[in-house]
Amino acid sequence: MFDLDKLVNDYLMPFGLKIVMAVVIWIVGGIVINVVARLVRSAMTRRAIDPTLVRYTESTLRIALRIALIISILSVCGIETTSFAALLAAAGIAIGAAWSGLLSNFASGIFLIVLRPFKTGDMISAGGVTGVVDEIGLFVTTLTTADNLRVYVGNTKVFGDNITVYDANAFRRVDLTAQLAHTVDVQDAIARLKARIAQIPNVMSTPAIDVVILEFNPAGPVLAVRPYCHNRDYWQVYFDTNRAIAEVGGMAQWPVPAPRQILMPPPGDLGKGMPIAPAGGAPAASPLPNAPAP
């Protein structure tokens, strides 16, 4: 005979209580996780820690606490968590083998956050891309290039290659050259260029502007023109300095540089074909055949 009371008392009531307890634990645990995550985020923000590291820490803490909460709920429901842990371990091995590249990017992202070779807002060159760092993500670093393109670079490429940080120092050098003709007074050209480039906005007075002879080529001397500026002003100073070189050359009426060659006959040919005046002052005979008489 079917015993309804036994079914309710022995099965439904305990199962219902477990469900209620699981729901309560899930709600209370979620509230506790949110409170703890907010406290950690606030504490790290007050210490002026990098925002990317704050997001990493908060996300990791939330995930870890959620996993612990789920395991606690399974224990309350009477589910053996040992087998569940073994299942998680097996799944972790399978996922690790399938996503080895992603996990490598993830590990590199952790190192980028911990070692902090650069931060959000820095202009860097890494992984073959140059741009401003928008975000250091779990798997990729997001850059915005000078032509306003957004590029996602895998953290493995960023961390595994040379990283150039343009904003790390207070200033950087702008490297340009000015080709002069042979007839231009080099010292006067250097003085004119220094005076004109010093008037360009955002060019630093310290270190001083470098204008020196770099090399000589068939067209004439080549000057190295090297002003200094902050990285954010680099391209403005670069183009203004090029314009200043052209203006100085035009105002000083420098000739157009062009290669010059002097043809010298071989030493053994000196005197050959040259007219030789005979004694007594008579006109020299022409070396050329059929030449008209003088």
UniProtKB/TrEMBL annotation:
<feature type="region of interest" description="Disordered">
    <location>
        <begin position="267"/>
        <end position="294"/>
    </location>
</feature>
<keyword id="KW-1133">Transmembrane helix</keyword>
<comment type="function">
    <text>Mechanosensitive channel that participates in the regulation of osmotic pressure changes within the cell, opening in response to stretch forces in the membrane lipid bilayer, without the need for other proteins. Contributes to normal resistance to hypoosmotic shock. Forms an ion channel of 1.0 nanosiemens conductance with a slight preference for anions.</text>
</comment>
<keyword id="KW-1003">Cell membrane</keyword>
<keyword id="KW-0997">Cell inner membrane</keyword>
<dbReference type="InterPro" id="IPR011066">
    <property type="entry name" value="MscS_channel_C_sf"/>
</dbReference>
<dbReference type="InterPro" id="IPR045275">
    <property type="entry name" value="MscS_archaea/bacteria_type"/>
</dbReference>
<dbReference type="GO" id="GO:0008381">
    <property type="term" value="F:mechanosensitive monoatomic ion channel activity"/>
</dbReference>
<keyword id="KW-0813">Transport</keyword>
<feature type="compositionally biased region" description="Low complexity">
    <location>
        <begin position="272"/>
        <end position="288"/>
    </location>
</feature>
<keyword id="KW-0406">Ion transport</keyword>
<keyword id="KW-0407">Ion channel</keyword>
<dbReference type="InterPro" id="IPR008910">
    <property type="entry name" value="MSC_TM_helix"/>
</dbReference>
<keyword id="KW-0812">Transmembrane</keyword>
<dbReference type="InterPro" id="IPR023408">
    <property type="entry name" value="MscS_beta-dom_sf"/>
</dbReference>
<dbReference type="Pfam" id="PF05552">
    <property type="entry name" value="MS_channel_1st_1"/>
</dbReference>
<comment type="similarity">
    <text>Belongs to the MscS (TC 1.A.23) family.</text>
</comment>
<dbReference type="InterPro" id="IPR011014">
    <property type="entry name" value="MscS_channel_TM-2"/>
</dbReference>
<dbReference type="Pfam" id="PF00924">
    <property type="entry name" value="MS_channel_2nd"/>
</dbReference>
<dbReference type="InterPro" id="IPR006685">
    <property type="entry name" value="MscS_channel_2nd"/>
</dbReference>
<feature type="transmembrane region" description="Helical">
    <location>
        <begin position="93"/>
        <end position="115"/>
    </location>
</feature>
<feature type="domain" description="Mechanosensitive ion channel MscS">
    <location>
        <begin position="102"/>
        <end position="164"/>
    </location>
</feature>
<protein>
    <recommendedName>
        <fullName>Small-conductance mechanosensitive channel</fullName>
    </recommendedName>
</protein>
<feature type="transmembrane region" description="Helical">
    <location>
        <begin position="15"/>
        <end position="37"/>
    </location>
</feature>
<dbReference type="GO" id="GO:0005886">
    <property type="term" value="C:plasma membrane"/>
</dbReference>
<dbReference type="InterPro" id="IPR010920">
    <property type="entry name" value="LSM_dom_sf"/>
</dbReference>
<comment type="subunit">
    <text>Homoheptamer.</text>
</comment>
<feature type="transmembrane region" description="Helical">
    <location>
        <begin position="63"/>
        <end position="87"/>
    </location>
</feature>
<keyword id="KW-0472">Membrane</keyword>
